[in-house]
């Protein structure tokens, strides 16, 4: 085979990565307070451009992934499993609150063709507050005006509201 034929074969067997298919969204759900992974968190990928909804479950290390995501805008919502919490506060007097709490946070993202988008989504820790003189458990730094699981607006707990875009793969070539 001649030296001129090798580049022609390589060119014939290559395609632009931009011509590839759907993208991947992967990431980790973690606790804002401790940084620890949140095992078994439910993660919803809600398409804002067509109503696509995908439910995922994070593994024991808080990791989740979905391959084959169509390009578009997404709201990524993480739901920590409900857990029983006991919190105490000692100022000015000792208060104790016991209850079952669940936490939710969400971030928005733009996914383009062939992206591999890495997402970190922090879940707030339960906190103790005095409401009408009674110790009360709540989750999150502030009350949201709407439920983040049904709102199209991101409700982050400890991350920026928008996930940074994936590094572009449009200028790469794949040799088959």
From TrEMBL:
The keyword ATP-binding does not apply. It comes from the Bacteria. This is Carboxypeptidase regulatory-like domain-containing protein. Keywords: Signal. Residues 142-161 are annotated as: Disordered. Residues 1-19 form the signal peptide. The lineage of its organism: Bacteria, Bacillati, Vulcanimicrobiota, Vulcanimicrobiia, Vulcanimicrobiales.
């Amino acid at each position: 085979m001649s030296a001129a034929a090798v580049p022609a074969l390589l060119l014939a067997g290559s395609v632009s990565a931009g011509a590839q298919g759907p993208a991947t969204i992967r990431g980790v759900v973690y606790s804002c307070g401790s940084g620890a992974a949140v095992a078994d968190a439910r993660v919803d990928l809600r398409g804002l451009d067509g109503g696509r909804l995908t439910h995922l479950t994070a593994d024991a290390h808080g990791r989740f992934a979905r391959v084959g995501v169509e390009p578009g805008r997404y709201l990524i919502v993480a739901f920590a499993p409900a857990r029983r919490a006991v919190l105490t506060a000692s100022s000015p007097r000792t208060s104790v609150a016991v209850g079952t709490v669940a936490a939710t946070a969400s971030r928005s993202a733009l996914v383009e063709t062939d992206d591999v988008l890495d997402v970190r989504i922090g879940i707030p820790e339960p906190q103790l507050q005095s409401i009408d003189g009674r110790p009360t458990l709540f989750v999150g730094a502030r009350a949201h005006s709407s439920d983040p699981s049904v709102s199209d607006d991101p409700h982050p707990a400890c991350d920026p509201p928008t996930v940074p875009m994936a590094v572009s793969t449009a200028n790469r070539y794949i040799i088959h």
